[in-house]
Sequence to fold (216 residues):
Amino acid sequence: MHFEILVEDFSGKVTLDILMSKIIGKQHTCRVISYRGIGHIPKDLKSHTDAHNRILLDRLPELLKGYGKTYSNNPAKHSTVLMIVCDLDKKCLKKFRQKLLDVLNECKPEIETRFCIAVEEGEAWFLGDLSAIKKAYPKAKNNILNRYQNDSICDTWELLADAIFAGGSSRLKRRGWQAVGKEKSAWAEKITPNMNIEKNKSPSFRYFRDKIRELI
Fold:
């Protein structure tokens, strides 16, 4: 089986490039494609942003239609799954998922398609495995890590930054969003290899893992 996975930023790609090999092994394949932000689903299902901007949800209707066209007469569609992985942020999970499903039903791509939502943010998957964080960052602040409740809406990446980044999230933010993105990618490179996918406590990660296994 082959998985095409679309994610909203480069740190997500770094994370999933590592995690997918742990989940699917060597007998299946995947390709992870990163975008430059999550954006918003266009109300008329027609993107009004430049394609070069590569904003995931802004392009979602066109992406679904494009995959549908590519695989419409392709035998590989029976063994290919398209997965869109994005952060919930501060949105209502039920309403956000329904909006995504509405777009899917409207576009009707020709291949199996699934949405997986990290609650609140992708860093929640790291925080679902505190031992992996401690292996990557032995000086991480336990008092901050231990107060985290899995998949809670709590400014997740800021909490992780407060635990492992010198000066915390406030100092990192002062460096600008480009520096934030670079640091998030570094977290992914250092933490993800240590993650135990069987013991992760993040419900949204377990949903992602189990959905892939169910599809296989």
